[in-house]
Amino acid sequence: MTAVKRVILLISTLAMGATMALAQAQPAAPAPAAAPAPITDADIKGIAAPGADARLKGDPDGGLTGTVGDVAVSDSKKGLTVADVVNQVGQNKVAINFTWTLITGFLVMFMQAGFAIVETGLCRAKNANHTMMMNFMVYGVGMLAYWLIGFAIQMGGVGGVANLGGAAPLNTEHVITLFGKPFGIFGQHGLFLTQGGTYDVGVMVVFLFQMVFMDTALTIVTGSAAERWKYAAFLVSSFVMGAFTYPLFANWAWGGGWLANLGTNFGLGKGYCDFAGSGVVHAVGGLTALALSMIVGPRLGKFTRDGKPNAIIGHDIVIVLTGCFILAFGWFGFNPGSTLGASGNGSLRIGSIAVNTMLAGMAGGFGAMFYMWMRYGKPDASMSGNGLLAGLVAITAPSGFVNPVCSVIIGLIAGVLVCLSVEFIDRKMKVDDPVGAISVHGVNGIWGVISVGLFADGKSNYGGSWNGVNGSVTGLFYGDAGQLVAQLIGVVTLIGFVFVLSYVINLAIDAVIGQRVGAKAELEGLDLPEMGQLGYPEFELKARAVGAQ
Amino acid sequence: MTALGLLVTFLGFLLSVFSLSLTSSVNGRLFIVLVGLAMCLIGIIGIINKGLLRNAIWRK
Predict the structure, then answer these.
(1) Does the pLDDT of residue A367 top 80, yes or no?
(2) CA nearest B10 in A: which residue?
């Protein structure tokens, strides 16, 4: 064999081998798939429902309940159609979300009971009836104001709530132009829950959920002004707050207003983000509480003539801590419920939100307890309770955007912060806050808003965007400094606008009807002079008997 | 004092809002907003509260 032949043979062999190798490497081209046959009405007509005889025998294992026979048929002559099935799927999604939102709203409503007994327990027995009545009636006063005016201002221009079937009538926001950009100021649909087409099933669910949030903000104030607030002034002040102050800021943050649009209009992250209301609910309540406490002044005997604070101990630590537990339970409605649904648009994150909530509460309780233990030698019960609440308040805004480790950090800081804040407000500012509401809700509400701008991890996904900006909410520690700026603008709005508005409103009420009870009534206790009935009549009988001895 | 404190606090808010048009830099906006925040705190703690403490009920 000549050399040329050998070379040709070698090349041929190599070429054959390479061809075989390539042939093995490349997968065989798939045969063209047949187009899926569309499902027709005829296909689903053949699906048999359990017979009537079978159903008459009962269904102990649930196998016969919830079948094709339960799908609503729009035209009985046509029978079940594909359109019927698809419509049922859509309605099931909205029904799941309605149910979730309503039940979590009911939980938040029950928090009123928690607030009532926490505040009453931290006050003296001679003011028990008065404090309970403020907490009881703030529910009705706030609801009335919100139904008449507040809801329309807050949500009248939100522009639809996808998880709840649209709520399309809430579509009219009053907008001004500033710096060449639209600034949403207040909503215009929803007065009396009828105006503007708002007699709508979805709107009703939105109203219930938002109403109980608003009432939470109002009831914060009753704690800080307790034991010296005139009942009539409380009614007027709470009505105005439920009608105007709260809804205005809530519109800016949640109702399509200008704070929410800081991302779309000015490129600041995803705009102001407050998942469940550290700012909208708690800071608004806490800052209004600060304004009111400054206006009504401290209780008689709270400070000595040289300004040294006296501790005025509450009368029942048992109901205080029981109330804290009720509030912690209600918070499972507050934060997870703020997805406004359990199906679609990232709502499955409800589990993560619930766990973040409980972890932060736990960390807050520990933070406060250990701080007090180290500083004063005992694990103070009321401050431990306030620490739990501070952790819950702080996690409220970031609960939907952070991971469990960050939740614990946020809660732990909140627990210590509430103790430092109580000391500062008591000793430096000399503002009397019998229940610590300013520190728990105001200071930690602000901390919660800031913590979104620091700890949001960019892993949440609520339908691919937030406040109209694509992507997930991401804080400074995960790469977006703009989000922190948006949050800080929200904080300055709370302090510089909401506080000022609350202060001016309550000064006006003070000028017209007076905010504070007389000294005689205060010393006697507000139960008889203001309410006409003692909270604990037997206590007084016992005290007299002891006195007689 | 109260009126002055409320004014300073409100001006802190306005300054923060105006940061949106004064600069497009994130750091610049952050600085202005922090100045606005400081003004708010001075207004409440340094002016309103200080004024109230002068006439506090426990001094009488």
Answers:
(1) yes
(2) A496
